[in-house]
Design brief:
The protein contains ten helices and seven strands. By secondary structure, it is α/β, with parallel strands linked by helices. Strands 3-2-1-4-5-6-7 form a seven-stranded parallel sheet, sandwiched between helices. The radius of gyration is 30 Å and the shape is globular. The model is unreliable at 1-23 and 88-94 (pLDDT under 50). This is NAD(P)-binding protein. Belongs to the short-chain dehydrogenases/reductases (SDR) family. It comes from Neurospora intermedia. InterPro entries: NAD(P)-bd_dom_sf, Sc_DH/Rdtase_CS, SDR_fam.
């Protein structure tokens, strides 16, 4: 029981009587006291600086509004690409043996945006894997030239081939439903059917969001998102009418999962997130029809257009590669294997997947 003398005056005045064990105050050594005081000082210091960032803090994780890159309005102004030398056509080098399920023999593949860059190289991968190809592009002249280049490259790499692949060129504005339907009808008329699709048509622009012209944003979404949706649904209808399985591969981007720095590109990032989720949603909806839908999300790839941008913005490449665990940007031919895998029967139990080909960028 606490004695009257031990009870504080304020409590005695209010007639409150209490019992409690007197707290034991530990006796600290001089070294313990010094540590205790240092910890208190550090805690106070943290409280004082919590709202005052260190100068330069976060600089490498932010976008830079001064970086502006516009996509050319005229497709003919885009740099031309060349079919790659993948090394797989030379006898004895990575040709045999391989799993038969990776073959695309007897299949007809459509690649949108297939006249240059990643689309061109992935189309070449389809041809090398035994498939026939329909190149779709806004620039019909460039598509026709590249169709001829792919066939000539194949003949050079496979001089004893028993079958020369059929490669055709077609025009389409992927954002226009009527243009898409006309293109699909033309491809079916020339090839007899369609089995596979790769949606590579797309572009990016770098603008700070508050100043990005709305008409340009709508055009970007029209190509990247609407174009993917329109071609996918048109070919899905074709496959369902034939009661035939098929495989569709959407070309997304690592930007659909992360925010790139330092260049600002919010509308593009959001459009590629939409592409990724379109693939997952279609995969579930069309699984019962035997139609598989997957997404490939490339990281930074050294296409002809990317090289041109980096030549004009030399600091960008150093900043980009510093964030890639493998320490280098990818090459377009790095997508030949992934797209062949996802289109072929080797991946027949894979649907709704997002395959990231980014050198480990999105792991960090």
């Amino acid at each position: 029981m606490a004695t009257r003398a031990a009870v504080p005056r304020a409590l005695r005045a209010s007639n409150i009587l209490f019992t409690a064990a007197r707290p034991t105050i530990p006796i600290l050594s001089s070294s313990q006291r010094a540590f205790h005081i240092s910890a208190i000082r550090l805690q106070k210091k943290k409280k004082n600086t919590a709202t005052t960032p260190t100068p330069g803090a976060g600089a490498f994780a932010r976008t830079d509004d001064s970086i502006t890159v516009e996509y050319p309005e005229d497709p003919s102004k885009l740099p031309s690409s060349q079919p790659v030398d993948s090394g797989i056509g030379r006898a004895g080098q990575n040709v045999f043996p391989t799993l038969a399920t990776f073959s695309l023999q007897g299949k007809v593949g459509v690649v949108t945006g297939g006249a240059r860059g990643l689309g061109l190289v992935m189309g070449q991968g389809i041809v090398v894997s035994g498939g026939d190809l329909a190149i779709v592009d806004l620039n019909k002249e460039e598509a026709t030239k590249q169709a001829q280049n792919i066939v000539e490259t194949f003949k050079k790499d496979y001089p004893s081939a028993k079958k020369i692949p059929k490669v055709t060129a077609h025009y389409a504005d992927v954002s226009d439903p009527a243009s898409v339907d006309a293109c699909i009808a033309e491809i079916v008329a020339e090839h007899g059917k369609i089995d596979n699709l790769v949606t590579s048509a797309g572009f990016t622009e770098n603008f700070e969001a508050v100043n990005y012209p709305v008409d340009r944003m709508r055009k970007l979404w029209g190509v990247n998102v609407d174009g993917t949706y329109l071609f996918a649904t048109a070919i899905a209808r074709h496959l369902m009418d034939r009661n035939s399985p098929g495989s569709l591969v959407f070309i997304g981007s690592m930007s659909g999962s992360i925010v790139n720095v330092p260049q600002p590109q919010t509308p593009y990032n959001a459009s590629k997130a939409a592409v990724r989720h379109l693939a997952a949603s279609f995969a579930v909806e069309w699984a019962k029809a035997g139609i598989r839908v997957n997404c490939i999300s490339p990281g930074y790839m050294l296409t002809a257009l990317t090289k041109k941008i980096l030549d004009e913005n030399p600091d960008l490449k150093e900043k980009w590669t510093s964030l890639i665990p493998q320490g280098q940007m990818g090459n377009p031919e790095d997508l030949m294997g992934p797209v062949t895998f996802l289109l072929s029967d080797a991946s027949r139990y894979v649907t709704g997947a997002d395959l990231r080909v980014d050198g480990g960028y999105t792991c960090t």
